[in-house]
């Protein structure tokens, strides 16, 4: 059995590629996942924001999780995204992921109507009571539409299997709060690419990122420089990749990663509408930023 | 055949009620809809934000639209909400609504990944090419997560059957811009309850609101005072209902309307998780605000 | 003796013009003030934001107030701006204005360090105890850096001679709150030009504005249309002037009014650095917007 | 002659203390300054935000700068704050500081009317042409009201003696941009206390802070841990002081430092109205946070 804090280092998001008819392309997903695994990352996180989770129907989500676990085959742990607007569907997918073999699930409280803190707590608590693997609570107001306060995140950690927090607000003060309130052993993760250096400096245990689809060596080397307390090297590595990290966030990860794979000579498949490919100007900019990197 | 600007006055949102098992309760929906029709409103808008559209699956959405149209039975026009994260599902539901007899569809560009202006335009354009009834473009960053600029809204009006704009930002300057850029005949609608007076003063053709579930007489009287250019009366009517309008928006329309119906002695059904009923303190506040109101 | 709510209608801001050496030009100020008085406005408000109050030293402020009162000569009431970062200087200028004959003073709680509500209350209370003319509390976070909550504004009205509120946030909901909390007789004023129509519709007693330097007839006619409850005419008048109102706010009132006077063939003097004149592109845009107006 | 990048490490802000009549207390300022110098900080920065620069008149500003330089007596460099709303007064104080012996001046573009980028550039350029000591451009929208974009900061560095940038937005991405755009040798400084660790990790050359009035040893030790690339130690030191750093920023530095000095048994003098001392609850919280800290 895996421990509650099994994730550490670089946790990579695969994209969910589509075929020309905008149907999920599982064989392509499998090969892109294998490529990530071999790049040296420490864990896989399918069906995150990069994996366009909310644009998939139930059957598609199940196919992606199944494929990721089959391909990982125990070589590295899998953190399955199971977020949904309704509590009932979140429970459904969390149970599916557990049965399929995921090491943990990641849940962002998606919102249409702004949720109260009590509603969010009850949402996590209901899911937690239906599964026995750990839950990573994921805060990302820019995509999910809900900004969980540090106080609410702290409260969520009272639920026994909510053991990890991923902060994607890009505000390093949130991490300071978590670390201070919860002690040096708390497992908090950074989900904001441009904050990679600051978050590691603040004590983040891992970095959840789509960047290893394009620059896995730079990502893992940054992690190791931090582990070795080699700050000048970490700075050097971070500033090398920082322009690219900012670009892929600014343009939207599914669009930017798909384009970057294409520039690397790897098929990244199609996007599902309304998402559209990067335009020519952005493609040239991305090409320029990737030149000479990893 | 109905004209492109068939909607005027008070356009009422029914809620989508659930049973104790959190399944959509169509008989209750039908009776709440009949109650709204008889209250004197000018149009019905099922599956708006108040109707918790994004929390329903495809079959549920179809059942609600069908029930609304059967109950309206031509007595007043029906504006069907058909918004979806993907373009394919939006087209699907728009076609369903047209076939079922809706006078128009309302579409908010829901977002997980922030959409570019081109993606939003293409989203509307694709839907528009698949139906022949008018489209109301609906801007509500607080729920949909996308804030369409006035310039983008103007661009959307180039699509032949995008003929109406609903602004729910609560910023009256957006309406000034629309009116100025598009002339006095543009059909713009207000979707922000606390802005009802200011929006009518700015020339809004209608007010899309869930309030008629609770105070239909005050809502329609405000509209008529404006039509009669009786500003003192409009002010008086507006300030009577303004505290309640603010409350139902602050607490979330599905929660607040369900609670208000209960206080009126009308069954409002159950909510679907993660949404939870108002707590006792809020119930007492709502009761106080509704006292003596129509 | 004047009543506490002596101000009603159009309250005009004169600019403070400078000579080529960036010294205050009192003779030019006097002639611009006379021009405003003859244009039919209902009151004068020297040393507001338009009058670049914070860029003047003590002697310059006194000279401007004195000149305004001498020129008004009782023909219309004068509301003198006396705001200052420190309480001591605010008291000083408020006493000066009272002795010089101002009907009331206007005070914005300027901030470098964000002030607590208690500090702001004590600031107003200290000034109020040193003078016996009424005080208009002025909320404008965009210039003053402090956003006084509606609750704080309500609290300020407990101070006996704080009898008027000017809201310049551009948020009509603030006015709804003031009117609701304080009754129909509360004297609240609008200081946001693009909100002129909405604020009058909400019941504002007056409009504090620099626009009469350029389009006094349109400004006063809008006020009269509202008083006559002629909403269609008010809409028509508002939409005529709305693009110009937005422009002068967007470009900064001192810059835009000085430029507009020049386009009208009236000497508007020079600005004091760091403020610089509008560039050519903005001048042409302003010329276009003023064509055919007032 | 001093070099353009003479400042490094901990740059300490003294407060400007007042007597019971709210007049500047120069003897107390001198003794508090001596206390700072002996605490081991690397430079002094009188008349920053902590020194309540904008609340002082011209004579008071000159007295403070003179006293700081006399007391420093060449033992450490002095960075004099000379910011003012008008360009003319900024030039005046910058020339005074140079003549008095300041190593450099710090200028924040204070704003009442929002300044254009050209106006800000011209403001700095005019000052720069009147002095020959280096200028630190200081960005702090929370106090100054102007947010200089990274692009504008880069442009300011084209002015020969603008050689240092102090960023106080608390957004580490601004520092990443500066470092990336300007190379590893750019002298950028952190002015946001809660960002101390992240800014040093990002490569900031120094930390401008009022904290050494209370915890100088922790501040300087953090700097040395970073210089030694001892990240675990830096984290440990940062998390020890982080709650206090957040508190003094949240409560306002002049108020919080004056209170903290009092708790340390050192006379911190009085504040000038409208600023008021911390209330009892905040005092007890501050006492708790300072317990056991250096």
Automatic annotation (TrEMBL), chains A, B, C, D:
Keywords tagged on the record: Lyase
Chain sites annotated for binding pyruvate: 50
Molecular function GO labels: 4-hydroxy-tetrahydrodipicolinate synthase activity
GO cellular component labels: cytosol
Active site: 138, 166
Keyword Lyase among UniProt keywords: yes
Superkingdom of the organism of origin: Bacteria
Alphabetical list of SUPFAM superfamilies matching this protein: Aldolase
Pfam family, one: DHDPS
Lyase found in the keyword field: yes
PANTHER family, alphabetized: 4-HYDROXY-2-OXOGLUTARATE ALDOLASE, MITOCHONDRIAL, DIHYDRODIPICOLINATE SYNTHASE
UniProt record similarity statement: Belongs to the DapA family.
Name this protein carries in UniProt: Dihydrodipicolinate synthase family protein
């Amino acid at each position: 059995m895996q421990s509650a804090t099994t994730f550490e280092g670089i946790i990579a998001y695969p994209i969910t590629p589509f075929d020309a008819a905008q149907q999920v392309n599982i064989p392509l997903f499998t090969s892109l996942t294998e490529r990530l695994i071999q790049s040296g990352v420490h864990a896989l996180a399918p069906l995150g924001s990069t994996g366009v989770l909310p644009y998939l129907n139930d059957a598609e989500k199940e196919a992606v999780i199944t494929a990721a676990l089959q391909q990982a085959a125990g070589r590295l742990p899998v953190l399955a995204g199971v977020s949904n607007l309704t509590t009932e569907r979140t429970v459904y997918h969390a149970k599916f992921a557990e049965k399929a073999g995921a090491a943990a699930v990641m849940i962002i409280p998606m919102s249409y109507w702004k949720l109260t803190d009590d509603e969010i707590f009850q949402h996590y608590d209901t899911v937690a009571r239906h599964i026995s693997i750990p839950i990573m609570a994921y805060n990302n107001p820019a995509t999910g539409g809900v900004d969980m306060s540090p106080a609410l995140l702290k409260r969520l950690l009272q639920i026994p299997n909510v053991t990890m927090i991923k902060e994607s607000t890009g505000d390093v003060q949130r991490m300071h709060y978590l670390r201070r309130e919860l002690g040096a052993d708390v497992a908090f993760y950074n989900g904001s690419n441009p904050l990679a250096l600051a978050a590691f400096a603040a004590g983040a245990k891992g970095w959840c990122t789509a960047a290893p689809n394009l620059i896995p060596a730079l990502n893992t080397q940054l992690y190791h420089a931090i582990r070795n307390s080699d700050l000048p090297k970490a700075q050097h590595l971070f500033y090398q990749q920082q322009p690219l990290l900012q670009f892929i966030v600014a343009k939207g990860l599914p669009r930017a990663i798909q384009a970057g794979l294409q520039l690397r000579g790897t098929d990244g498949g199609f996007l599902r509408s309304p998402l559209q490919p990067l335009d020519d100007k952005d493609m040239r900019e991305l090409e320029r930023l990737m030149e000479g990197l990893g």
